[in-house]
Amino acid sequence: MSDRREFLKHLAGTTTGIFFVNCGLLNAAISPQQPGAQPKRREVLVGGHRALTVDVHAHCFVDVQDLVKDHADSAAASGGPANFDAQILYPASVEARLRHMDEHGIDIQAVSLAPAYNYWADRDLASHIVARQNEQIAALCASHPDRFVGLGGLALQQPDLAVEQMEHAVKKLGMRGFEIGGSVNGEDLSAPMFNPFWAKAEELGVLIFIHPASFAEGQRRFQGNGFLPNVIGNPLETTVAFSHLIFEGTLDRYPGLKICGAHGGGYLASYSGRTDHCMEQSAHCKPVKKHPSEYFKQQLYCDSIVFTAEGLRHLVAEVGASHVLLGSDFPFDISDPFMGDPREVDSVLGVPELSAADQRMILGANAAKLLGIKS
After folding, report:
1. Distance, CA of 262 to CA of 328 (rounded, Å)
2. Would you say residue 210 lies in a domain?
3. Phi, psi at residue 202, to the nearest 5°?
4. N or C: less crowded end of the chain, CB within 10 Å?
5. How far apart are CA 66 and CA 32, in angstroms?
6. Beta strands of 164-291 (E only): which ranges?
7. How confident is the model at residue 203 (pLDDT cuts 50, 70, 90)?
8. How far is the C-alpha of 88 from the C-alpha of 73, rounded, in Å?
9. For residue 290, what are the CA distances in angstroms to 34, 182, 258, 374?
10. CA 130 centroid distance within chain
C-alpha cells in the first residue's frame, strides 16, 4: 500500500483539472496492460439481445482548490476539496475511465461531482466555483459525447443564482440534469426559498439527482465504528429530503419534476407502507394529493445501489422497475470502506426475479428516457 501512496502523491502533485478516483483504475495505472493489448468492450446481453447500459451515479472531482484555499475549514466541513486533499487521489485520464467502462459493460456514464457542493460560499465565489465545475464536466462530455452526459452543480444556497446557472448549463453547456445535496445549510429542500429552483427544474424537464453528504444533525451519534456518517447518514438524508418533498407539497406543486435519490432512494422507498399508514390513520399527518408510495411511481426515482439481489428485488417490488436506474457510485471513494458497488451491471443481471424487460429498463432504458439519450 505504501508504494501506491507514493505513486499517488507524485501524481497529485503534478496534475490539475478533473480527478477520477477508483481502486480499479489505480491498479490499472500501476500495472499497465501489455503493449498492444486492447481491452475488449463488454456487451451486455439481455434475452440474447444487446442492452444499453447507463450508469447514473458516476462521480468526478473538479479541482477548485485555488478558489477555496482561503476557506479550507468551510470546504472541509461541507465535504469539499480540502477533504479530498487528505485522501489518496488518482488523477486518471479519460482513457482510463473509458477502459474501465469498456471492461465492465458501461456504455454511458452520467457524470456528476463528488459530493462537494460548497453551499457555504458567498454569491460571487459560488458563481466562480459552479462555473468551473460545470464547464469542466461539459468539456469531458463533449470529448466523448457518445459515452458521457453531464449532471451539473448548482449554488443552491442562492436559489435565484441557481436558476440562472441551470438555464446556462442546459442551453449552453448541454447538461442533462443537476446533482444537489439532500439539504442546504440546514434548510430542507421543500423550503419555500427553493420553489424557484424546483419550478425551473420542471420547466427545463431535467433530472435532479439528490446525492447526500451525510446527515449533519446525526454526526454526534454517528461517531465510532462502522463508517456511520456514510452508511446510515447518507440514506437517512435522502429519506428525510424525499419525505419533506412529499408532505410539504413540493411534488404536488411541481408535478413534472423528475428526482432520483442516490443509494436506493434512502430508506423511504423500502418502508413506504409506514408512511402511507401515517397519512391514512394519523391526525398528525396532513393529507397530500396521493399516497406517499405513489410518488415513487411518478416523480421519484432511485438508483440501484442496495448491494444485494434481494434488496434490489424488493426495491423494484416497491417502486416498479421503471423507476430504478443503474448506479455504481463510481469512482468515489477509495478510502476504506469502499462504498460503491463494483458489480455494476451484474448487480442487476444477478436478480433472477427480474424479467428481461425489467432488466433492460434498469440497466439503461429508464436513464436514457430521463436524460434524453438516444438509444
Report:
1. 10
2. yes
3. -65, -45
4. N
5. 32
6. 177-180, 183-184, 187-188, 207-210, 258-261
7. very high
8. 19
9. 58, 22, 16, 32
10. 17
Beta strands in 181-245 (DSSP E): 183-184, 187-188, 207-210
For 144, which DSSP code?
Answer: S
Number of domains in the chain: 1
Span 261-299, pLDDT tens digits: 999 999 998 888 898 988 888 778 888 899 999 999 899
Name the pairing type of β-strands 45-46 and 49-50. antiparallel
CATH of the domain at 362: 3.20.20.140
Q: Which three cell numbers stand for residue 241?
A: 429530503
> Considering the domain boundaries, does residue 78 fall inside one?
yes
Q: Does any domain span residue 39?
A: no
What DSSP state is assigned to residue 33? P
CA atoms within 13 A on the CB side of 324: 31
Domain that holds residue 87: 2-34+44-371
In a domain? residue 121: yes
Q: What's the full length of the chain, in residues?
A: 375
- Do residues 61 and 18 lie in contact, with contact meaning Cβ atoms separated by under 8 Å? yes
What are 212-245's pLDDT values in tens digits? 988 888 989 999 999 899 999 999 999 999 999 9
| Dihedral over Cα of 86, 90, 93, 99: its sign | negative
